[in-house]
Amino acid sequence: MSAKRRIPAAHKLRLCYGPPLVGRGTRRWGLLLVTVLCGVLAAGTVSASGAEADASQGKVKRVSRLKVDAVAYHLPGRTALGIRVRRGVVAVDPALIPLGTKLHVPGYGPGIAADVGYAIKGRIIDLWMPNNSAARRWGRRTVVITVYR
């Protein structure tokens, strides 16, 4: 006679395919609670662990926010990555934001960190504008950007 093991209903409904966020017998509830609260306070679109799931490819992206000074510029040419300058090209300090990183600038839109500048040190970014008048209208603003790593 084989005895059937009864599986609790909570285990049947588990949709997580990886290891559980908090293992049984560990003392990580405090860390989990802090992470959840920070995620809720930071933004509604960012999940509790600071990661955003990309459902189409099953990848997880780290999302962070940075307060930077955004300066507009208009120059023709190519970037440090070799692409032609266009709207969405952002010059950054590669020590802070790696080249090729996608980001979002409020009031400007989505961008890619594709260029470096000799005056770009630390929390300063340059936004490419299509003409001088647009660059002058933007000027220099302090914004909180979203960086997708």
Indicate the topology.
Layout: H1 9-12, H2 29-42, E1 51-54, E2 59-73, E3 89-91, E4 102-105, E5 109-115, E6 124-128, H3 132-138, E7 140-148
Parallel strand pairs: 2-6, 3-5
Antiparallel strand pairs: 1-2, 2-7, 3-6, 4-5, 4-7
What features would you describe in this structure?
The protein is of the alpha+beta class and 149 residues long. It is built from three helices and seven strands, in the order H-H-E-E-E-E-E-E-H-E. Strands 2-6-3-5-4-7 form a six-stranded mixed β-barrel. Strand 1 and strand 2 form a beta hairpin. The longest helix is centred in the first third of the chain and has 14 residues, at 29-42. It is elongated and about 80 Å long. The model is unreliable at 12-18 and 43-51 (pLDDT under 50).
The quaternary state of the protein chains shown equals: single chain
| Helicity range | 10-25%
Say what the CATH topology of the largest domain is.
Barwin-like endoglucanases
Radius of gyration: 22 Å
Number of domains: 2
Low-confidence stretches: 12-18, 43-51
The second-level CATH architecture of the largest domain is Beta Barrel
Mean pLDDT: 76
Q: How many strand segments? A: 7
Global morphology = elongated
Query: Can you write the helix and strand succession as a string?
Result: HHEEEEEEHE
CATH superfamily of the largest domain: RlpA-like domain
**Into which percentage range does the β-strand content fall?**
25-35%
